[in-house]
Amino acid sequence: MIFNDLVDAIGHTPAVRLRAAPAGVTAVAKLELQNLFAMKDRVARQVITEARENGVLAPGAPIIESSSGTMALGLALVGSSLGHPVHIVTDPRIDAITLAKLKALGCSVHVVEAMTANGWQSARLERLAALREEYPGAFWPRQYTNPQNPLAYAALAQELVADLGTIDVLVGATGSGGSLCGTARALRRALEAAGKSDALRVVGVDAVGSVLFGQPDQPGRRQSGIGNSLIPGNLDYAEIDEIHWLNDREAFVATRDLARDEGIFAGNSSGSVYRVLKHLAATAAPGTRIVGIFPDRGDRYADSIYHDDYGQQAGLDELPVRAEPIEVAYGTEVDGWARSRVPSSPRRRLLFVESNTTGTGMLAFSRARDLGLAPVLLTNLPSRYPGIGEADCQVIRCDTNHADALEAAVRAHIDPDEVGGVTTTSEFYLEAAASLAASLGVPANPPAAVRACRRKSVTRRMLANAGLPQPVSVPVARAAEVPAAVAATGLPCVVKPASDSASSGVLLCTSVEQAQDHAAKLLAVTHNVRGQAVPPEVLVEELAQGPEFSVEAIFANGVLHVVGITRKTLSAPPLFVELRHTFPALLDEAAAREIEQAVRTAIETIGLRHGACHTELRLTAAGPTIIEINARLAGGMIPELIRQAGGPDLLTQQLRAAAGMTIELPWGPLSPTGVAFVTCPAEGQLASLDGVESARQLRGVTEVQISRRPGDPVRPATDAYDRIGYVIASASSVAQLDQSLDAALNCITVQLANEEARASLT
């Protein structure tokens, strides 16, 4: 077979029968060491090509990774082939051959000098963080947590099925967790499709002194490519039935045995797999088919494993060497070959149907991981999300704007039994998430209730029928209908889309002509910013006079809990951009009770009964008037305000709700907390932002985030998408809070590329 380039040549490795198996038992070595460099060539290809396709890795952008061996070589191979400079962070344990190969391939190699708190691994990650500051546009493949790591081994599983058909036992080394868990998961799916769902037993091999399976860390262990001092995100315990540990001496002896007995000159991870595979074959019933994954070749171990005096020089001769494993209870500390059953439960996946691009969108993925859930982002455009390449989230690219295509993509990539829940942090995909959840049988709001929230004219009608105060609201489908609508609402009036988000297109109009012109502009828009068709309808509404608030609530065990009320500060007319939020709102008890009761009635009327609800309202002379109800968390960092103020972490609780987990609403003493948004006073191209660090140092300021980079286009805010950053602060009073936020905004200045003078961002 002739390949077009080296990247295409990765994989297609041979499967070889081992002589060590007794009669009637088939023992096979999958020689991943026959890749161009080693097994992780597959991971490098998967991670880099996926990042390029999704727009996470720009053409020619640098690649930075921490690795002491084969992952580094794979990245060097694929990265250089595709035109990317590659930076590898490693430690003094790197062997001379690997170092020579990396340099020959044009890599920049950065060697840390000493271990830090968690051994060499943490020292390398600290150096990697410094390099990322130096190269802000660089891509970090994150081999230990990147979901593309295990996904890379689907091809390996397909090759095994093609070569062997049925497989009874799979044996593999564990380091990042990607190869064994990814191969096991894909194999199980293939076997289930063939009606052999219980056919596969998966046995992992680890190093004594590795923390991966309940053992204390021994940073001085000498095995490479196996074991870890940290728990990687790609290690899925549910995929592994049994674990074996070998100490350094046992692993190195087994590696030399593999060369002598089978003619396979390999590294120590392959040697460890061979030792366990050989034992399993000797104790297996006739007809059993056992496959071991052999990751790496032995050339870089010529001066260690294959050197006759190495064991004595390294002090390994005192370690025990067992002829067979002892069985121990999981968690028992071991010093040599031992085995244990792995206690595990299936890792549940939390599906995100798209996400918001600011606020809590990216944070939700890490919170899902913290809950033991594996986040999966379903998106039609991954490059829409800054930072998605570092979010530890599996990305499935699919058509998220059509329900049938969305469900088909999920079922093609994920076993429905693994789906723990479906959610979204994007207003535009609430209906899609609710429909997908219903089709998969996981907790969610009724799709009809979500549709009623999304279509504002339906919301108005339902709330008016329930007797709740509502502004006069007239839906129009043609600009010619606007004069009659204005006659009903009076002037000034609000003209806005029937289903949008972030105050987009909302305008206060002071004349019929202005209202008609704006309605015509809105009606000319056929698709929103996410490419979804929008209803051909615009609302002309009476202006609800009074301060604006939002109410955050969440269902727990079928009961709606009102978490609190947030005060909102809007831009000057004619726009309605939210510029500041304060939690908790300063209200007297009677007003707060009246607002809460109106919101409870509105949510019940619409039919929501699951997860978080975000309701916006104005406190008018007629009482609380609902502006809109959203079947989601608030945006604009309000959940983070509540958490920092001493309230519950609503983002985590919304994820718990989506996954059918118990809702927890702990409370502490509340401190006034607020967010103020950074906006630009003029239109242009951003040259620089100054004073951000000074703002961070101010008393009371807890967070400052900027979402724009030099070169980005900026303009005065017409909706939430135009905001370019935010400041969060806490204080003992609302007055002090406002002073802290004002001071932070006054610190920050912007330089536009088309200006010579700096303008204050106030």
Write a brief structural summary:
With 762 residues, this protein is α/β, with parallel strands linked by helices.
Describe this structure in words.
The chain is α/β, with parallel strands linked by helices and 762 residues long. It contains 22 helices and 31 strands. Strands 1-2-9-6-7-8-11-10 form an 8-stranded mixed β-sheet, with helices on both faces. Strands 24-23-20-21-22-25-29-27 form an 8-stranded antiparallel β-sheet, with helices on both faces. Strand 21 and strand 22 (578-583) form a beta hairpin. Helix 6 (154-164) packs across helix 7. The longest helix is centred in the last third of the chain and has 18 residues, at 589-606. It starts with 14 loop residues before the first strand and ends with a strand.
Q: What helical percentage do the residues reach?
A: 25-40%
Q: Rg to the nearest angstrom?
A: 30 Å
Number of strands: 31
User: Any idea what the shape is?
Assistant: elongated
Taking the alpha carbons of the first and last residues, their distance comes to 65 Å
Low-confidence stretches: 756-762
Q: DSSP strand (E) fraction?
A: 15-25%
Number of helices: 22
Q: Which structural class do you get from the secondary structure elements?
A: alpha/beta
Across the major sheet, the strand order is 1-2-9-6-7-8-11-10
